[in-house]
Write a structure and sequence with these properties.
Layout lengths: L3 E3 L9 H9 L3 E5 L5 H14 L5 E5 L11 H24 L16 H13 L4 E5 L5 H9 L3 E6 L2 H9 L4 E5 L5 E2 L14 H8 L7 E4 L5 H9 L4 E4 L13 H7 L7 E4 L7 E4 L2 H6 L9 H16 L21 H9 L1
Parallel strand pairs: 1-2, 1-9, 2-3, 3-4, 4-5, 5-6, 6-8, 8-9
Antiparallel strand pairs: 7-11, 10-11
Helix pairs in contact: 1-2, 2-4, 3-11, 4-5
The chain binds flavin mononucleotide.
Length: 345
């Protein structure tokens, strides 16, 4: 197997077709189970197994264990008030697209509690080669369920302390995510301000504190970048943005086109869309609302969801979360296999 990993990309871009294409090209790919229901995950697993018998991974979002518990009433109230204030602030964005804001506290949450438990049961019945987790480390019950699948367990880390904690928890490998990465930063708490270490510096900082195999993620766009990450101690290199425009990705047309649009000149890390820090193309919504957005994930994710869905349908790039890494301009169209080959050249 070559060292190229197609990152899990929740919200549409990761598809069974993309994972199969990368596996057939000698790389390794992940299905993205974040936001999916257990049934939807089971359907993707079945589709992937029809297409390919090569090893693959599944990525899970885990709930932030530092989120205020119901008995912490003061903290909980503060957070609820901050979500309400943000809802008032962005009401006009929903109005402009003729949709209602979403319910920040929906009755079913796919990435926590019973929703997450159901996905763990699917993975126990159909274990992939590897399960990676992001946004937190698992609690004891979740870790036991993950272990019981028999899959190799990989944790996303964004700093040295997180790497130590994941190593102590008994993970088999770490995805080391640097600041240049597109999409959400996998900090282990929502409120943590993500550091600005690039992937190579982060690898060098983490290498001495763990003996686990490391996967470099963030800001790699070509074969030279792959080589640099391997030289800095990574065993493999995980890329997201590089695959966003490929034929097999499920990226929306609006998102694909924005990545190639000369109007966009850079990226920014913002909580505006989901309440969690994420790197996206710099657009009006991020600039205008990002500074006011509270660290409240998944509440803001649910709140803004109808706005983002309508924006994607309407081709409105001013209100869409256009996740992208700093090297988004290098993302090419065509078969994913060509991207894998290009990264090995
Ligand atoms: C559109 C998009 C969606 C992402 N979704 C996930 C996800 O569901 N789970 C995850 O662990 N990482 C996710 N990531 C982050 C990637 O795992 C990876 O860290 C990142 O793409 C690497 O940086 P690059 O985009 O510069 O290659 C996502 C990234 C992007 C661009």
């Amino acid at each position: 197997m070559n060292p190229i990993v197609a990152a899990p990309m929740a919200g549409g871009p990761s598809t069974p077709a993309l994972v199969a294409a990368v596996a057939d090209a000698g790389g390794f790919g992940y299905l993205a189970a974040g936001y999916l229901t257990a049934d939807a995950l089971a359907a993707q697993l079945a589709q992937l197994r029809q297409r390919s018998d090569r090893p693959f991974g599944v990525n899970l979002f885990l709930p932030d264990r530092s989120a205020p518990a119901p008995y912490r009433r003061a903290r909980l109230l503060r957070r609820e008030r901050a979500v309400e204030a943000y809802a008032r602030r962005i009401a006009g964005e929903a109005h402009a697209l003729h949709v209602e804001l979403g319910d920040p506290y929906p009755s079913s949450e796919p990435d926590a509690g019973p929703g997450l438990d159901a996905k763990l049961r699917v993975l126990a019945a159909h274990p992939p080669d590897t399960i990676s987790v992001t946004f937190a480390l698992p609690d004891d019950a979740c870790l036991a369920a993950l272990r019981a699948t028999g899959a190799r367990l990989v944790a996303t880390v964004t700093g040295v302390e997180e790497a130590r904690a994941a190593t102590a928890a008994g993970f088999d490998g770490l995805v080391v995510q640097g600041t240049d990465a597109g999409g959400h930063r996998g900090t282990h708490t929502v409120a943590a301000e993500p550091n600005d270490l690039d992937t190579l510096d982060l690898l060098r900082a983490i290498r001495p504190v763990t003996a686990l195999p490391l996967v470099a993620a963030g800001g790699v766009a070509d074969a030279a970048g792959v080589r640099r990450a391997l030289d800095a101690g990574a065993e493999r290199v995980q890329l997201g943005t590089a695959f966003l425009r490929t034929d097999e990705a499920g990226t929306s047309t609006t998102h694909r086109d924005a990545l190639a649009d000369p109007e966009f000149s850079g990226t920014t890390v913002t909580r505006a869309f989901t309440g969690r820090a994420a790197r996206a193309l710099t657009n009006r919504f991020a600039v205008e609302h990002g500074p006011a957005a509270p660290a409240a994930y998944p509440e803001l994710h649910h709140l803004t969801r109808p706005v983002r869905a309508a924006a994607a349908r309407a081709g409105d790039v001013t209100r869409l979360h256009l996740w992208a890494g700093v090297h988004f301009r290098r993302a090419t169209t065509g078969p994913a296999a060509d991207v894998v080959q290009g990264l090995l050249r």
